[in-house]
Amino acid sequence: MNRVSLLIPALVLVIAGALSSVFIVDEKEKALVLQFGQIKAVREDPGLYFKIPMIQEVVRYDDRILGLDVEPLEVTPLDDRRLVVDAFARYRIDDVQRFRQAVGASGVSLAESRIDTILRAQTREVLGSVTSSAILSADRASLALRVRDASRSEAATLGIEIIDVRLKRTDLPVQNLDATFARMRAEREREAADEVARGKEAAQRVRAQADRTRVELVSDAQRQSEIIRGEADARRNAVFAEAYGADPEFFDFYRSLAAYRSSLLEGNSTMVMAPDSEFFNYLKSDQRQ
């Protein structure tokens, strides 16, 4: 009985020791085997591994791509127009042994603090070498690539690979917004005034051209009408002359009727003349009673 009671605890201890000597590394992580704080083994491939119980410990690190939001910072481009930049980065632990040596037991929290410092410094340096217009334009993507490439060498000393850097937001500081908006408004008003002035100038040119065309058309029409009227008068006079030459007496009679028609209308002024006046020649009758 005593042997059994002694074997059971011993067996339990053996099983516990065996279990504590086994650890599993899956595909999402990397592991370090430490002995009194010193790195004894690096386990990067998924699988089942062994360690010395009670002496060695296993520290695991995420092998996936991780994200880090960089704290907003102010940058001063070449044109001294300050901007507030908000960025984020994607990184992964590339060399787990170097990572452990660089950050110690603090792990990811200390690493992200150092990455933040690196990215802030490189962001200021890269964005400070261009104008604010370039930062606010489509060139912002290429600037982010420059920040990423410049940060990689420093991050590599931490055993970290910078996968990507993106600029999420590039705004003006709050204290500069009102002045900037006022300047933009003044520029737009000036451009609008220039457009209005150019429009008025163009309208004046069109109006002057239209007036000139109207005067030319009216003048040409009047000239044509005068020519036509002159030709008609000439033809009328020719007809009259021909008629007068053919029958002078009938022509005198026709002219007298025209004179009667124009002078004996209702409302005309009163005319006083002798009955034997030549005006009444064709109103007299040759028959006597």
- Helix tally equals 7
SS elements, strand count: 8
What is the total domain count? 3
| Overall outline | rod-shaped
Low-confidence stretches: none
Content-based structural category: alpha+beta
CATH class placement of the largest domain: Alpha Beta
What is the name of the CATH superfamily of the largest domain?
Band 7 domain
Major sheet size, sense and barrel closure: 3 strands, antiparallel
Topology (SSEs and partners):
Blueprint (H helix, E strand, L loop, with lengths): L1 H19 L1 E4 L3 E7 L2 E6 L3 E4 L5 E7 L3 E10 L7 E11 L2 H8 L4 H20 L4 H5 L3 H17 L3 E12 L2 H73 L1 H16 L26
Antiparallel strand pairs: 1-4, 2-3, 2-5, 6-7, 7-8
Helix pairs in contact: 3-5, 6-7
Identify the notable features of this structure and list them briefly:
289 residues; alpha+beta; Tetrahydropterin Synthase, Chain A; three-stranded antiparallel β-sheet; 7 helices
Give a nutshell description of this structure.
This protein is an alpha+beta fold and 289 residues long. The protein is 55% helix and 21% strand.
